[in-house]
Design brief:
By secondary structure, the chain is α+β, with helices and mostly antiparallel strands. It has one domain. The protein has five helices and 17 strands. It has helices spanning 3-10, 93-100, 218-228, 250-257, 265-271, and strands at residues 42-45, 48-53, 65-70, 75-81, 104-107, 121-123, 126-127, 138-144, 152-156, 169-179, 196-202, 207-212, 232-240, 246-248, 281-287, 291-292, 295-296. The strands form three sheets. Strands 1, 2, 3, 6, 7, 8, 9, 10, 11, 12 and 13 form an eleven-stranded antiparallel β-sheet that branches. A four-stranded antiparallel β-sheet has the order 4-15-5-14. Strands 16-17 form a two-stranded antiparallel ribbon. Strand 1 (42-45) and strand 2 form a beta hairpin.
């Protein structure tokens, strides 16, 4: 059960500044001191890549992170909540991936001991029963209801608006704002250390999902991202502790393992969490359907 792990994310302590790792994707050579902004890594698909970012030259207290870069124009995002799926209990991250078939799945945010989600949560344009949290002002949004230039974004409710009467996006998950567009770290320095999953928006519109491989404070992560990856627009922290998790489909792993190189992210991803707990809500990504003639199948 999530219990204290989820509360760690949910309490106003707001540790761990979502150092949305200026995800410098360091390619097959494995983690090296990153000079910040070149994103290269193992290509898992057209618009999806993964690698290891090692910021320790600039951030000695931050261990290497797994960094996934996603092009929202090529991959769509889907929010899943266990009750909406007709499940009596939450699935762990690997079970979610097997059930949904997504290329990648990560934890969606904070929740209570009874698995109630803390904050706004929408799937396919419908509220999944949760209410806006007044303190956590990070909002992951994807799949706009009307045509827009950005298919997925990180919003900051300090500056951005979100109309619950006319919901502008079909997929929504609220959580902690870690690093905002002004460079301000939006969590307190508490000294608490835990695993973290972060989502960051880049200036080019790509999203980065970052996963720690060792425990770290959110505030230290935020400082590291701010200093080592200044091109990130804003970063939010999803969930921490044993709820911080990512799963990649077995087929993508098998395909990558056939390519030359060290693929240093594979053992880090497998070893970063020893026990996978039940997660009530997750976000999955899958390739968008390609155009057929002049028409597009993807909504």
């Amino acid at each position: 059960m999530v219990r204290d792990n989820s509360l760690h994310r949910s309490l106003p302590f707001i540790p761990v500044p979502c150092i949305l790792l200026g995800i410098i994707f360091i390619m097959s050579s494995g983690p090296t001191a990153a000079t910040a902004q070149a994103l290269t890594g193992d290509r898992l698909g057209e618009g999806l890549s993964i690698s290891t970012w090692n910021p320790q030259a600039q951030c000695p207290d931050v261990a290497p992170l797994i960094a996934v870069e996603i092009d929202p124009n090529r991959y769509r995002f889907t929010v899943h909540y266990y009750q909406q799926e007709g499940l009596s209990d939450p699935l762990d991250i690997r079970q979610w991936q097997e059930r949904t078939g997504h290329d990648l799945v990560f934890n969606a945010g904070l929740f209570r001991e009874n698995y109630a989600y803390l904050g706004l949560l929408y799937g396919n344009g419908r509220s999944l029963g949760s209410k806006r949290h007044n303190t956590w002002l990070g909002l992951f949004v994807a799949e706009p209801a009307e045509d827009r230039s950005r298919r997925a974004r990180v919003l900051d409710l300090t500056f951005d608006t979100f109309d619950e009467q006319h919901v502008p996006y079909r997929e929504v998950a609220q959580s902690l704002m870690l690093l905002d567009r002004t460079g301000k770290i939006r969590v307190r320095q508490t000294g608490k250390r835990a695993h973290q999953t972060l989502v960051a928006e880049q200036g080019d519109g790509h999203l980065l999902v970052l996963k720690t491989t060792e425990v770290v404070s959110l505030h230290a992560l935020g400082e590291c991202l701010r200093d080592a990856f200044p091109s990130l627009r804003q970063v939010m922290a999803m969930d921490g502790g044993s709820s911080s998790d990512i799963a990649i489909s077995p087929s993508l792993r098998q395909t990558t393992s056939k390519f030359a190189g060290l693929h240093s992210w594979i053992p880090l991803l497998e070893d970063s969490i020893t026990t996978h707990i039940g997660l009530p809500a997750v976000i999955g990504i899958s390739p968008r359907q390609k155009q057929i003639g002049a028409k597009t199948v993807d909504k």
